[in-house]
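Hi all, posting the design record for the shared folder.

TITLE: backbone redesign
STEP: 1 of 1
STRUCTURE INPUT:
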């Protein structure tokens, strides 16, 4: 009986330890700035896709744009080459955004990131219209 009681006590202690260790991690603010909502869509280092400096701005736009690229490629509205090029542009945007966010975003950096997203969105719109190698 003592052995079973010891096992139960150890399991309880182990579970409590796991909760105690995980709690500070769950409470972390993953790079959120400006008091907007935090870790949203499952993004990562920069507050998730629903977080960011204005409560969804750049990150939400980025997530929606990535989704639109994938949908257009899946539906055949853009060619495989066009989709690959747009994905590359979005990856480059993410690299620049990561560099900017390391020290916090200035107003100039926010504008630059938004202009980059706008450019990728324009390219997607143009690619959808040009019927490049598609029926």
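Okay, here is what came back for every position:
SEQUENCE:
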């Amino acid at each position: 009986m003592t052995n079973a009681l010891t096992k139960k006590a150890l399991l309880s202690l182990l579970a409590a330890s796991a909760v105690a260790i995980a709690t500070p991690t769950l409470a972390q603010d993953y790079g959120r700035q400006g008091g907007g909502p935090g870790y949203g869509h499952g993004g990562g280092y920069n507050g998730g896709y629903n977080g960011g400096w204005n409560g969804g701005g750049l990150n939400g736009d980025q997530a929606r744009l990535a989704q639109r690229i994938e949908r257009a490629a899946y539906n055949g509205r853009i060619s495989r080459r066009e989709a690959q090029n747009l994905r590359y542009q979005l990856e480059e945007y993410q690299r620049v955004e990561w560099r900017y966010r390391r020290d916090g975003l200035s107003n100039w950096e926010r504008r630059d990131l938004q202009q980059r997203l706008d450019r990728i969105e324009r390219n997607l719109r143009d690619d959808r219209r040009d019927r490049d190698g598609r029926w």
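COMMENT: The chain has a mean pLDDT of 73.
Let me know if anyone wants the other runs.
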